[in-house]
Structure formats: C-alpha cells, structure tokens
What does this fold into?
Amino acid sequence: MSSFLRVAWVVVKKDLTVEVRSLEILSTTMFFAVTVVLMFSFGLVVDGRPLNDVAAAILWVAIAFSGTLALGRTFERERQHDTLRALLLAPADRPALYVGKLVGILLLLGLVELVLVPLVGLLFNAPVIAQAIPLAGLVILGTLGFASVGTLFAAMLVRARSRDVLLPIMLYPMTVPVMIAGVRGTAALFQPTPDPAVAQFWLALLAAFDVVFVTLALWTFEPVMTE
Amino acid sequence: MTRSMLVMLALAAGMFAVAPWMIDAAPYEATMGLVYKIYFFHMPSAWMFLTAAIVAGVASFRLLFLKRPRADHWVTAAAELAVLFGAFTLVSGPLWARKAWGVWWVWDARLTSSLMLFMIFVAYTLLKKYGGPGSDKLGAGLALFGMANVPFIYVSVNYWRTFHPPTSVVPTLPVEMGIPLWYCVTAFTLLFIILLRMRARLEYQRERVEALYLAEDEA
It folds into this structure.
C-alpha cells in the first residue's frame, strides 16, 4: 500500500513541477472559466437581473467546461512527448498512476474553483460565504465525480484520433448525475431561504457516485491502458 | 447469412406483417382513444433498447476483464442496436406524449435517462467510427461506465422531476390488450436477436478480411 501511495505521489509531484514551471494549464483554464461565466451571464441576465437559479447553473457549466479543457491539455502534454508510454512502462501499479493523475487534475481544478466560486458569488450576489461549508462539499464531491470519469476517459483517448471532440462527447452524458446534483444542490443553497436538507440529499448522491466511479475507474484503468 | 438466421428473419417479417391487424383488434382505451396504440410498438422497442444496453455492458465486461477479443463484435452490434431501438423509442414516445400530455417532451426521469443512455451509445458509435486504432477497448470502457451510470441518472432525474406512467401498468392490462402487446414484444425480440447475430457476424467477417489483407501485404 505504501508503494501505491508513493507512486501516486511521485506522479502528482511530477505534474505539479511541470505545471509550476510554465503555469500554462492553470492560467489558461482559469481565464477560460472566467470567460465562460461572462458569456453565460450575457445570455441569461435579463434587464439586469439574473433568472432563477442561474448562478448555480453557470457555476457548474463553467466547472464542466474548464474541467474538460484541463483534462484535454494535461493529457495532450503527456502525448506530445510520448511520456504517458514511459509512465505506463514504469514498474508500478497502473491504478497508482491513475490516482496520481487524478489528484493532479483535482488540485488544478480546485485552484480554478477558488477563483470561480467567489466570482459567481460576486456577480450574482450569491451567499457563497454564508453557505461556504455545504457549498465546498458539493463542489469538492462534484469535481471528484467529474474528474474521476474524465481522467480515465482522457487517458484512454490519448492514443485515439479526434480526441479533443470525443472527450466531451463521452464525458458529458456520463456526468449528467454530477451536473444535476451539483446544480440542484447549489441552487438550494443560493435560494433566499437556503434549504440544507435538499443540499444534503444531493451531497449523498454525489458521494455515492464518487465511490462507484472511482472504484470502477481504478478497476478498468489497468485493462484499458494495456496495449 | 446462416440458415437459422434466414428462418428467423422470415418468421420476424411474417410477425411484423400481421402485427397491424393484431393491434387493430385490441380495444380502444377509454381516455386516450386511438393514440395509445403507439404503445404496442413503443414499449417493446424500449425493452429492446434496454436489452441492447445490457448486452453491450456484459460483452464489454468480457472484453476488458476476461480478455475475449471477439466480445468486441458483440459490443459493436449491441451498441448499434441500442442506437436503433433507442431512436425508435425516443421518436414514438413524443408522438404519444403530444396527444396524451399535450407536449412533445417532459423532463421526467425515464425520458431523460433514456435520452442520456441513447447519447452514451451514440458517443460509442462515433468513437468506433472516428477513434482510430485501439477504440475497441475504449468503447468497452465507455459502455461499461454507461451501464453503471443508469441508476444514478435515474435517481438524480427522478428527484429532479417526474411524469411517466409507472412500470406497474403492464400486468394490469386487460387480456385483449395484453395479447397484442406480448405478440409485439415477441416480434421485436426476434428482430433484435437476428440483427444482433447478423451484425456481430458481419463485424467478425470484416475483421477476418482485414487480417487477410494484412497477411497479403506482408507476403
């Protein structure tokens, strides 16, 4: 087990080192997320007032879009230098490599969300600070659900043609439960009188989704990544 | 095509030719009148849609974990049938809904989860067509995740909102409606089995032809 965690940690450290040196994915993804929020705001704000539940919807659409972008870019970097092959050749547990990549993506998206959530709160007057704890729970579990499926698919797609368009095509229908749970749970928190019971139900659903899909991904990563 | 396939095909064609009379003979339903008869084709095709999804999931499991490369032919065949019967279900459903509910589409649990499952299998066919080499395992992973996802989609959309007539409607149908319904289910099942076998066989033959071409190139 300790070697499993060590391998995962080495992969995380490698990804962080590469990212810290260039900040390429972090800066582009963050700016992209901000742009998405603005684009949707122009579409969904009528007479200077947002429609009902728009803040929650925009937040999650921005997470999904920027998540897809970050996933695609992360694995594109591995593909360009053919380093994914080197990783797979390493005498290490394949699932440990998956966990390493997943944690790297989660850290990246977590940083993006640290900007995204306050921005949505600011622009839509949403109670992000008053509801900080349940909101953080929803965002963390939702991002984990999205990234657990996304990391596996993006890794599988590294060798495929037209991978940039295939990733969202495969990922979005698969993460519909995450989107619904995230948006409905967040909307319940953003109401004039917040409804924590509803948010709790969606949190529980997200937790179940995460457990099932992380397990399934750990289990499938080995056979799908074997040539 | 093998002889048994021909026999089954002839049988299915005969059954489908007679089906309109069977459906015509079924009595009118009190509140919905004529339009409810779409149900005789809608429900069997929805069942075949789900069966196709299950077959694809099981075959994917065999391909990935039991390392049976030929299971790929069955995943491909079942996934394409899921798209076919899914499309039929998703077209015939709204036709009925327009009359019964007054709208083409409602965001109810079953409609939405069917649509999402359909989209997963459309993604599968796109992946197989444009994904290039290695897309068989990728597709199997997608189909497997799609199967695992169905209960989550269902529960999440169910709590989001709900409309569809419940499954418990089937055993309560009067006999005059039950007979044509089960007749149609049989016809659709037969059609499903034939198409599945033919498509898997076609895929197998395509693979063999490719192997022969490669062998010729090397010689």
User: Anything to note?
Assistant: The interface with chain A takes residues 64-65, 67, 112, 116, 119-120, 123, 126-127, 130-135, 137-138, 140-142, 144-146, 148-149, 152-153, 155-157, 159-160 of chain B (CB under 8 Å).
